[in-house]
Amino acid sequence: MNFLFTPNHVQLLNACYPPTSALLTAGPDYSPNSQELSRLTYYASNHPSKLTKLGSELEKRVKAECRKAQSNLRTRASLLITLAIFRSLATECRRDIALISPSLVASIGAIVTAVPSDLEVVARAANVFTAWTTYTDGHLIGADRTMTQDYIAALTKFASLACSDAHDQEVRNRTRLVGFEALTGALNSEALYNDSGQFRAQVSVMMRPILLTVYQTQIDILETQSDGVKDAPISPYLAEFRTRPAIERRAASIHAHIDGDTGPSMSDVSSAALRALFSLLEHANSGQLGHIMRASLDTLEDPKKSGWTQIEHCCWLSGRAVEWSQYQYRYAIPTWLVERLAENQESATVTPMHTALVAMVKAVFDSSTPLVNLSTSDIVSNLTTLVIRRASINPDDSLLPPLVECIASLGRHVYYSDQIQDLAGEIVNRLVAVEVQGAFNRGDEHRSQAIRCLFAGLLGLIHAAHETEAAKTLAEAPKRNRSSSFKVSSPAAQIAANVELGTPASSRRTQVLTDIWQDTLSLLCDADYAVRADYASGLVFYLENEIPTLPGDVDENGVRRLRRMVESPFQHQIDVKVLMQSGDFGTKFLNAMHAYVYTLATSTSLGFGDNVTNGPTTSEPDSTTDASEVAAPSQGSGGRRSVSSQAPRARKASVVQRLLERAPSRVSGSASASLSDYAHILSILTTVHEQFPIRGLIVGIPMLLALDKAARSADVSEAGAVARAVAIKVVIAKVWLVIGKTWESSELVNLANKALASVPAGADLPSIPELEFGMHPASQSVPFPSDAPAKPWEGLSSETALLAISSAAAVHAATELDTQAILSRLSVQWTAESALKDSVEKPSTFEATIRGDGLSPLLKISPALMHIENASLASLTRSTRGVGVTDLREALEGRSSMSNPALVRPPSLSSTLDHTSSIGIESRLARPRSRTRSRRVPPSGSEEVRDVLTRLGIGKQNGSLLKASFPLPKPGGQRMEA
């Protein structure tokens, strides 16, 4: 009824309602009078200033009717009509919807709070809410505090409806569907994305019902439904929501029930939840994805839901989150998961959250979904830190194996050519630190487990990269080229295996350089046998797979023909003079490796610092102290471990130097190596001579002669010395057999077979297990048996074997040296200390260059590229040769550690062009550089530049100076060593 002074907008509003007596018969539509409603919406659209008053009037009526709706049918009917009026105003006045927004949102919240069990009323309220979310621009969210609170409250109520646990299945499913429809409207609304501060609050509310439904659905149903989510959007307008202007949008209609329809199933509810999740992930950027993942994991921490225990659902969630996110923002999900894992690394026990997070990370990295922009360096840094921390807490921590798998799975995502090499360098740095300093100052058991885990992660990383490359061509992972047994197969079979299973020549990934891997060689002499065994197997894998070689050509009879010129897998083509002078990284690496092999075979003490193994490894048990009982230091300094005044690499260099100085010149019965260690030594040396024949010949044979001399000098009266000498001679004889087969020396093969036929009983070396990727139980050494040979065994005469290999025609053809020159080179005096120095010290001259003029290419071109007034530096470049293009190329690309920016810095005589390994013997402080610099000369004109280019022999430049992410494959394949 309208009174005398009733405002016009109220009169128009009252006219929309049917008479009070007709309210009960207004069903089932409960719609306002259509003609009067048209007049009201026309009035409101032409008088925007009245919208606020209309909204306030409707809000007042809604709140009054809500209190009576449950017990009064007329009031309930009036409430339904009021909601219909609200929806019409929101739809027709969409341009000015902000004026009615506060009243509309407050009314929706009041209705859902007052009558949550009345599905018809709630469904109509959800209709109004969806209309508002469709047309609003969201600028009031965050700006209007009261409205923001009402909006979050309404979202919370709809989220509660989507989590309904009513006993009746049909009612529960219908209630959940109504809640999800309202939430879906909010997910596709500008109200969600307008204010970044409110995004997190809204997502925290929405993710709870979504995850609750997902975790209550079976995985096979989720897989089936998720496949169709992208192709079947909720509605055409929601699919195009982000591109349509507000004026052209159409609000979705929500119904509680249609007569004749069967009740919705749980599959319908899960489908609605998946579509809501897809809509949320599809539009989120990197920061918003972080909030989504935080809200998801916070939801899983609810103890009532036990979300962390459902590992399969957790992995499904992480995989779909990555797949459904925008391509350029996917990296945020694994990054956030790893950071969340790192935040909880101090826990003394492994919780279900730890297990689930690690499984989720591994699921993401194991998938084929691209993760561009992923900071793999940060990921591997966090994972390795977590590995060390968990190993320091408990060496048998159940989280260590899956963490190692996570590190390895990063090898499946290679996005630039040097990525695996960079990640390997990061892991090697951690290995060096743990090897020297231990795992947060805990006992030896913790240290050994941390080293084994990090090394397993390193091997797994490289293996995963090989698998990814092989899958593109062979559809199977690369395998070891040789069995772990010590019976050397025929050269033809080995060559075929190498060709079939080696890394494809078209590989675009940079291999892990030997100067990076060289820092890990000291693990071969670790005090713990489990570490030594794991590392020896990993070293063989590295030599066979990461440094791919294709042996010489095979003729129709299956006989290998060695190439005349050496083509190194470590660097570009070089001549034998470089190998003789140990001037390339490959030879340096093998020098260091042979030094450690000799030390392992003869040393009476192994390990670093306090972690040293002394005495022989025999079958008698020894009383040892449990290193795990060492008390951890106080963590009063923020949990940071105490560090030495020296850097780990400098400290390691000092310890290695002392270890090599103690390397005896004869085999002693108190040597630390076990019988299994000699089996690993044979495996390593066999691989070297099969994979790198020339370098193995030049570097390995002098070590074999020194090792044979040490074995023959053993004191036969000392307990255990005879058995060790026999084991070493067996290794040497079998290595000579491999060398003879590799170089086709029938004389040497016959000598070796004859010697091996007379091996005394009980002197056979044990077999070693196949390489296992990932974590596995610690290997147990095989000690020398109590019935070891008591009488010396002559073995194979090294002098006779040396003469036989020096006379081999294949050796002459490959080295271009005669028998006397080869004998002179291979019989040089060799010690472990000198070999290690050759592996790290840079040559004093540049005789190893192709020209052999003894001048640094960088020093040659420095006067041409810069105005240098340093007469001393200029004098270094005096040569009988002119400056050419070759000089420029060698200066810029000749050494892996040369830095191009150095060419534009002021010259300095204290050059640091060569990269020194961490095991450098001369670990002294660097010389102070002079602070005086030449006066900067302003650039000269184009004539002077042209003169420099003319002197360098460089004309007009063609092509782009940009460096590609991956190097182009060489047409001739990789250059390999013969």
UniProtKB/TrEMBL annotation:
<comment type="similarity">
    <text>Belongs to the EFR3 family.</text>
</comment>
<dbReference type="InterPro" id="IPR049150">
    <property type="entry name" value="EFR3_HEAT-like_rpt"/>
</dbReference>
<feature type="region of interest" description="Disordered">
    <location>
        <begin position="611"/>
        <end position="650"/>
    </location>
</feature>
<dbReference type="Pfam" id="PF21072">
    <property type="entry name" value="EFR3"/>
</dbReference>
<feature type="region of interest" description="Disordered">
    <location>
        <begin position="894"/>
        <end position="945"/>
    </location>
</feature>
<feature type="compositionally biased region" description="Basic residues">
    <location>
        <begin position="926"/>
        <end position="936"/>
    </location>
</feature>
<dbReference type="InterPro" id="IPR039786">
    <property type="entry name" value="EFR3"/>
</dbReference>
<dbReference type="GO" id="GO:0072659">
    <property type="term" value="P:protein localization to plasma membrane"/>
</dbReference>
<protein>
    <recommendedName>
        <fullName>Protein EFR3</fullName>
    </recommendedName>
</protein>
<feature type="compositionally biased region" description="Polar residues">
    <location>
        <begin position="908"/>
        <end position="920"/>
    </location>
</feature>
<dbReference type="InterPro" id="IPR016024">
    <property type="entry name" value="ARM-type_fold"/>
</dbReference>
<feature type="compositionally biased region" description="Polar residues">
    <location>
        <begin position="611"/>
        <end position="627"/>
    </location>
</feature>
